[in-house]
Amino acid sequence: MSDSSAPRLAGPEDFATVLAGLHALASDLGDPFAIAETALQDALFGPRPLAFALVAGGQGVALVQPQISTSAGGVLAYISDLWVARTARGTGLGRRLLAMVGRESAARWGAVGLRLAVYDNNTNARDFYARMGFVTHDRDRIAVLTGAEFAMLKATP
């Protein structure tokens, strides 16, 4: 793997690379890409960043934010998006991205671990995470509230 594709912390100058990787991930998964570019850019590089991104040339991207976990006993780095180009899969890039997520999140937030979600039907990703030692729990379900339902909840006195 060349130095240009070694994982590194993304800066504002890398936003196009981050965006391209996240679009590729959405396409690979058949997911919509609904976030406004300005909102993502502000979340990563604005005056009060909420997350960080890693880039590995045009071959990989990770999007990470802190999540406080009382059951884990501290902050977990929540990896909301992890993409490795098909041509780079099997090269160790995914592991290197996750290792850097671990180092960066421990330095920033004192993270005690990593958390991510993986689709049931994405067997390659599930196998990859299992080989690394990630444990999936059948008791966990991700619930999302958006759109009109979120607006109605916010309007509750």
TrEMBL record:
<dbReference type="InterPro" id="IPR000182">
    <property type="entry name" value="GNAT_dom"/>
</dbReference>
<protein>
    <recommendedName>
        <fullName>N-acetyltransferase domain-containing protein</fullName>
    </recommendedName>
</protein>
<feature type="domain" description="N-acetyltransferase">
    <location>
        <begin position="5"/>
        <end position="157"/>
    </location>
</feature>
<dbReference type="InterPro" id="IPR016181">
    <property type="entry name" value="Acyl_CoA_acyltransferase"/>
</dbReference>
<keyword id="KW-0808">Transferase</keyword>
<keyword id="KW-0012">Acyltransferase</keyword>
<dbReference type="InterPro" id="IPR051016">
    <property type="entry name" value="Diverse_Substrate_AcTransf"/>
</dbReference>
<dbReference type="GO" id="GO:0008080">
    <property type="term" value="F:N-acetyltransferase activity"/>
</dbReference>
<dbReference type="Pfam" id="PF00583">
    <property type="entry name" value="Acetyltransf_1"/>
</dbReference>
